[in-house]
């Protein structure tokens, strides 16, 4: 989350539109592969998939190391890196999510929030390391990231093994199972509106998080990787803060209502259109991240709770698909608007669309009525 924009924005000086396209390379593979990854997670040993993907995901980092060493680092190489990591993510996410219920020990809400808290904390640590790119250079950070992936692969083998596995499906069976996953999502009055909410998050919020924040940091405040690390750390510190609150309030029953309130917090994005001191900018990003932390934890808790055991991997992958298919679109829109109409008009547009879309979601679905099972 720091290494990728640092190379593209600060080292290669790509335009906002080109940067948005680069972010698409990270997210686009999920559009085509993540539901297939969910089908695999339902069929085979998910922990083996997760471990192997961790090890394979370290290979694109070698490409960056060789490119830096030979002074041939380019936009095209970063696109290859983005596509490779996107493919890895498409298979890793469903496998990891399907395993989460196996370690929940009867309390899925606590398990989801705890896992999110650990993930956000590690992301924050990684971003603080990424902020040292100005002084350390890129190579130590690439090595650090590769080492982290290797450690993750080792611990993936320590997770519970799937008790029921079958052979991989043929092509016809694969398409039928993918179709079943979409059908299960569409027919669920709890999972479907949450999936729609993730589409709104991807288009309106994720695109701006990926594209707008780096350019606000560099163009408005004239800061390098350390400044961008501070901004992104503010966002993820907010997610940690809100998840700490959630973990101490595990008796929340109105999951849908709490999630919707957090979605509306994201409309604070509109204030980024105005010039302000850097500390105030970081505080707004912290508040934005606090809302995002609640949305991520509550939505995943709802999906994990109401998904059928036999279809959990596929249902979780459809949920992830909603985010990762709309995220690239949001990144492209954000990059186009910034380049042609400026950062201010971009965030005004995104926050206005999000407010209208969330309001319609509340009116047309029962998302606010989703509650924890008795």
Defining traits:
single chain, 374 residues, Growth Hormone, Chain: A
Question: How would you describe the overall organization of this protein?
Answer:
There is one protein chain. This protein is mainly α. It has one domain: MFS general substrate transporter like domains (Growth Hormone, Chain: A). The chain has 15 helices and no strands. The longest helix has 30 residues.
| CATH class membership | Mainly Alpha
CATH architecture label name: Up-down Bundle
Separation of the first and last Cα atoms: 39 Å
What string, H for helix and E for strand, traces the elements in order? HHHHHHHHHHHHHHH
Globular, elongated, flat, extended or rod-shaped: what is the shape?
globular
Helix and strand composition category: mainly alpha
CATH topology: Growth Hormone, Chain: A
Strand content: under 5%
Strand segment tally: 0
Q: What profile does the largest beta sheet have?
A: none
The CATH superfamily name is: MFS general substrate transporter like domains
Q: What's the total helix number?
A: 15
**Fraction of residues in helices?**
over 70%
Poorly predicted regions are: none
Using only CA atoms, what is the Rg? 20 Å
Q: How many structural domains?
A: 1
Q: What is the residue-averaged pLDDT?
A: 83
Topology (elements, then pairings):
Elements: H1 3-11, H2 16-43, H3 46-56, H4 59-69, H5 75-100, H6 108-130, H7 133-136, H8 139-156, H9 171-187, H10 191-220, H11 225-247, H12 255-265, H13 278-306, H14 312-341, H15 343-364
Describe this structure in a few short sentences.
The chain is mainly α and about 375 residues long. It has helices at about 5-10, 15-45, 45-55, 60-70, 75-100, 110-130, 135, 140-155, 170-185, 190-220, 225-245, 255-265, 280-305, 310-340, 345-365. Helix content is about 80%, strand content about 0%.
């Amino acid at each position: 989350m720091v290494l990728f924009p640092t190379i593209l924005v600060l080292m290669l000086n790509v335009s906002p539109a080109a940067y948005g396209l680069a972010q698409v390379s990270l997210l686009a593979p999920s559009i085509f592969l993540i539901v297939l990854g969910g089908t695999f997670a339902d069929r085979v040993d998910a922990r083996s998939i997760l471990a192997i993907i961790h090890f394979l995901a370290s290979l694109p980092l070698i490409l960056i190391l060789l490119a830096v060493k030979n002074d041939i680092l380019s936009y095209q190489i970063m696109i290859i890196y983005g596509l490779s990591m996107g493919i890895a993510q498409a298979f890793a996410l469903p496998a990891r999510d399907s395993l989460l219920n196996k370690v929940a020990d009867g309390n899925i809400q606590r398990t989801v929030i705890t896992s999110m808290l650990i993930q956000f904390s590690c992301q924050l640590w990684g971003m603080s390391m990424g902020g040292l790119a100005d002084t350390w250079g890129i190579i130590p950070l690439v090595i650090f990231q590769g080492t982290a992936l290797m450690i993750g692969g080792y611990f993936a083998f320590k997770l519970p093994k799937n008790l029921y596995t079958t052979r991989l499906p043929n092509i016809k069976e694969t398409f039928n199972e993918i179709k079943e996953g979409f059908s299960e999502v569409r027919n669920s009055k709890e999972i479907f509106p949450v999936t729609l909410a993730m589409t709104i998050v991807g288009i309106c919020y994720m695109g701006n998080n990926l594209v707008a924040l780096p350019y606000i940091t560099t163009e408005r405040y004239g800061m390098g990787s350390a400044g961008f690390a501070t901004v992104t750390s503010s966002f993820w510190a907010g997610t940690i803060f809100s998840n700490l609150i959630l973990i101490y309030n595990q008796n929340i029953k109105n999951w849908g209502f709490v999630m919707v309130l957090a979605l509306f917090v994201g409309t604070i994005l509109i204030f980024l259109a105005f010039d302000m001191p850097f500390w105030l900018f970081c505080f707004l990003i912290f508040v934005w991240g606090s809302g995002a932390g609640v949305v991520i934890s509550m939505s995943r808790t709802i999906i994990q709770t109401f998904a059928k055991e036999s279809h959990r991997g596929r249902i979780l992958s459809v949920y992830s698909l909603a985010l990762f298919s709309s995220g690239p679109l949001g990144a492209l829109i954000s990059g186009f608007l910034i380049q042609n109409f400026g950062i201010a008009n971009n965030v005004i547009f995104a926050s206005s669309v999000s407010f209208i879309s969330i309001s319609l979601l509340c009116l047309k679905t029962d998302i606010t009525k989703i509650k924890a099972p008795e």
